[in-house]
Predict the 3D structure of the following.
Amino acid sequence: MDEVILRFLWIYTWFVLIATIGLGLYGIAVKPNMLKKIISLTILGDTANVFMIYVGYRAVYPIKPPVLWTMNPSKEVLENFASQITDPVPPALVITAIVINMAITILITFLAIQAYRLYGTLDSRKISKLRG
Amino acid sequence: MFRYLTIGLFAFTIYILFSGSITLYDILTGLIVSAIASVILAKTLVKEDSKVIDIRRLFWLIAYILHYMTIIELRAHLDVAKRIINPRMPINPGIVRVPYKTKTDYATVLVSNSITNTPGTVVVDLDEDKKILYVHWINVKAIEPDKTYEYISKTFEKYAKKIFD
Amino acid sequence: MEVILAIAFYIGLALVVIGAISDLIGALGMLRFPNFYVRLHAATIGAIGGAVYPLIGVALMSPSLTSLGTYRWYLMGASLVTALFIAMAAPTGSHALARAAHRAKVVEVYPKVVDHLEEDGK
Amino acid sequence: MIPILHLSLISIVLTLGMVFAYLAISERDLLKAIVYSAGQAAMYVIAFYLLMAPDIVLAYAAVGVGVYSAVMIIAVKKTERYEKP
Amino acid sequence: MSKKNLVITSITLTSIVLGLIISLGVLGPIPLTSIRPLGLFYALFMANRNITIEVFPLIVNPGNFWAASTEAITAILWDYRGLDTLFETSVFFFAIIGSIALFRFTEKEEHEIRKKTHENHASEGKYLGLSLITKTITKIILFTIIVVSAAIALHGQLTPGGGFQGGSAFAVAPLLAIAALSRFYLDDIGFKKNTMLLLRTMGLLIIALLAIIPVVAGIGSWQAYIMQNQPKEWAIIQLFPPKGLGVLLGSLVYYNIAELLAVGAGFTIIFILLSIPEEFYKKIIEKEGVEHG
Amino acid sequence: MVDPVHHLIGLTPPITVALAFALPLLSLIVKSRRFAEVYGVSATAIAAILTAIAFYYVYLVKSPVVYTFGAWPPPVGIVYEVDKFNGLLGLVVGVVFLLVAVYSIEYLKHRSGIEWYYTLLIGMEAGMLGVLYTGDVFNLFVMLEVTSVTAYGLVAFYRSRKESIEAALKYAIVGSVATTIYFIALAIIYGSYATLNMAQIAFKTMSKVDYFFYLIGGDRLWITYTPMIAVGGAAALALALWAFSVKAAIFPNHFWLPDAHPAAPSPISAILSGLLVKVGVYAIARFLYTLFHAAQPEVLVDSALKYVVEATLYALIVLGALSALIAGILMVAQSDIKRLIAYSTIMHIGYIAMGLGLATKLGLEAAIYHTINHAVAKALLFLAAGAFIHVVGTRNIDELSGVGRLMPITTLTFIIAAFSLVGLPPFNGFVSKYLLYMAFIEKGWAPLTAIIVISSSFALIAYVKIIYGVWLKAPVKELKGIKDPSPIITIPLLILAFACVFLGIASPYILDKVITPSVVDLAYNPLNYVSEALKILTQALGG
Amino acid sequence: MTLEEIARSVIMIIMPIFIVAFVLYAIRAIRGPTIPDIVLAIDALSFDVAAFMIILAIYFSSPFLIPGAIVLAVWAYALDIFVAKYYEKKEIGE
């Protein structure tokens, strides 16, 4: 029984993540407003990050973050540590991705503000009409 | 000069509290960080040097925190919790004037934040010239300034004057 | 010394339990109350009763948690700083929101017995 | 038992995040959309916490709840608030 | 409308297919209980010098894989995969430079705007901002958050945190100062755009120098590599002491400090640029549009 | 004792980016326009010298070179793995950037914000070299973002022009969606292969036991092959190639390019068209041929993966053919000179994709040679068109009538570039198009050669229209004082024109000595690529 | 039973209460109706999550999970201030 519930929850979470990614793509593709596109972009990027972290998760107990609590670990401490921690690689990659997404989002927002100054609108349909 | 030292000490305390350990590394970096923070910000935080050396104010502050956190808060929490759980209990909210008599910014802020932190009363606005706080009160018992002062802010102001004025 | 720590521990535990209950009450109030201004009071219960009290409780509990080693002081310090911080920030945030909502007139003050702020023309 | 509790918590939080994301995308008032996306970020912060990534919580709480919303609110202030159909 | 429907259908279908592939095929229908060996390798060897445990039997000298840190993520970020982080900060740097280039103005124009608005708004420590309560509390929070962010960054090699995390926590300080007080408060405490750009580039240059300096120190023997932290048998240069002042040090501390400086200053630049009023830019762009056509 | 040249190869991107960091600081101190210009040129010159050293080393001494950052062996740390393929492309990048940096001095002399321009330019070069040299899939993502973010900033450099802001906005949104998709692909790669190192992934796709993980120890689950891994690899390959096809502007993901490339300043257009799309092509080639062994599908350990790879190859051919045809048709209809050249880029990327999709030795040679030829010729074309625009001040083809005779050098270089791109002998474009032709016939797909002929003839029509107008038509505008621009502009043009001719005439020698070895390194020598990384790991472990 | 086990079992009991409270806050945030309502709900939610994070750190006996709490709280406060500023002033920088 436990096994079945665990499996259901695991697959359900994957589906929720993929559906949110789909939502983000939908927002970027369909919504005409530039700021709305940017919001969708942040949602897409954030969900991709959760996706990456979820890859590194393991269903054991007790589970701990990969931080050692002593400076001179003995063999026992290390073996104990190895059986409890999550994978440290996905968090490291995700931090990089968060910074990158944030930097690009900020740059795009600046571009959108500048576009509003020039065009007087943020609607991408109107912008492509006015380009001339 | 004292303001820099006091603010620096305060910063150092927070740094050590947040690091949670006292090695040489923590102390050294803490000293550097608190020095930088106090150099940048002390001049906008403290106006009068003479007040910060007064130890009695610190005691009043501790007494106030104990009194406030144990008695006043608990009573107010119970009152509002009753209103939430019991659907028949009436709420008759409104925004009333509450005068205040404190002189410095910090005292005013202490009074008004204490009022907001007490469930049942929230400071919506304040008039610095007329010295009036506009308080949203969940159960308006009185609307005259004297009585609202009595109900809402008298205790806080007593402490605030001793701590900051 | 151990007795004092144990007493502190139990007080802390009680505070944590109180925190959980006030959190639930605050959430219920947020849901039940009819208007933004009234919900502010429920949010206060959530922030002070539901966050500051349990944080102080954790700070009182942490010296007894010996299995955490020296990091129990880290737990204690961080929870104290966070408690202090929330005690300062929560009321200010509520006040700022309420004032902005009243000035921009995005929320009607309803139900109301009296509104002196509107009478004074702000 | 305990992994199940943990996983169900994660799935609740992520589902709420998805609801917030849907609201953020479908809402026409941009300010409201931004606030909803801040809510989604708060949910993801809890998810990161439960997935045992404290570093990400530190970085993402700042970026997702704070910087994105702040920059977007300034952008809305400088441009226009309502999305036209 | 039909185009919209097409997009919706295609995205839904893609999502479902992807979901099926990923949840059933790739990552398995049941959650993992074992850890990937690479992650375990990082986590075990970051902090110990002498012990091998049974999962890694073939490693002869574990001291060779020591990163002088107890926090695996900071160790990966700044030591094992340090190059990623160097270029990640440079992405942020180029985004800021791009923003500055987009919102560029000359010094004369900047002087003009400052003179015109500063007199109206701020005089003798009184800022327009929000209410008195908000202003006072924000000043205290500003001060608290500077200290806390420094603590987060400086303990990056021991507890969760690090340069970027500290810097992004610091970013709330300029933001709150702009929102609750006003942008003249930032001017008054010395957070000006050019100063911040100076700090930003300084931080990045320190990072780049820390990366390159082992190679420069190893000229002649060529036994040191870019971004090297602790000595290895095949790379023997040691510049950064592994322990000192009662904690683990390594090069991670210096990287974290530089990154804190760089990220904090970078966010400040962005918020300063965003807080400049709109009429000012409109004027500049009109003028430029006339000049360049 | 490591060869010092290895350190120089490893230093190339970090030192370039460090030079970019220093420029804003120095320009705050030295407030002079001349300083920023000289600094930009010298920084790109340093990078060009370093890439030339790398090229020389991998061709004459040892290939591939593995440089370990922080002295961490391959799966543990990031490595740069330079073989003949990316060494060659690195040299092209270095040279073109140097010429563009020189050209920009004159071209942008009336613009403000030159220090930001050069900072972004140097940063873009660092990013591009990083994409080329890296041997780590996640580092590839980071470097791709460095190039992208600088490209967005540079496209929007004319900030008061409506079309450039709009193009930059569109480009940025599309580009960041693509990189996010690539990030998801990376999550799947890490989830199934448990590694990020290219050599290790290449090893895992062709072997049942992972020797890397065997060496560092670890769980048996991750050492041995499971069918799950193959499905993960297929999903990751599909997502990653989709993302790269946006970067490379292959149909149907080409729609951002005709807006973005013309909107930038001309030297940046040259880089975007000549080099940046090639970065996408490089990533596609690396993923397909080194990581997933598309040239020798028989070495793949899983048959499902084999089908996916073959399907991808067909898809590349079809999409390449479509982009070549569509871009060719649209080219004729353009009246904006830069927009016309941008459509030509899509066409040539179509040719390269077709060459990559063939997966034969001749096809790959054609694709790689065409990559280089197109980089040189397209950069020349954009720079020459930029020279017209700089002098005359318009981008409309009709208004350029008659200026050709007043600007002989510019017109000559323009004609060389155009003829080279159309594929007329003796220029370089002819050779690579001929190779592609032969590759199709060799594979037995002769009808597809018609696509090359048809689209090339469209291109010929479009270019002849321009050249006729520029050279022979009566001027519509007043042409007083128009003459060739200063040598700062014409010298880069002449160098690139000479390169066009040289790459055409010396093609037998170049093909034999340069292109074929690089194809072998890319696609036919996977064990060499892997074993170099493994050697470092074994040394490091002390075994 | 040591003190720690007592703490963990008590937290185990009260954990569902917190979760229910979160869901209720989230429902208020989803329902709105006005923007100050949503912001207030997210604000209260964040403060409680901050407290819950630190309590759960005891439950998982892992003190490294806590520093996120103060960062989340400070940014939730910043969100308040920003929305307030949006409503009160013409320019953000004033």
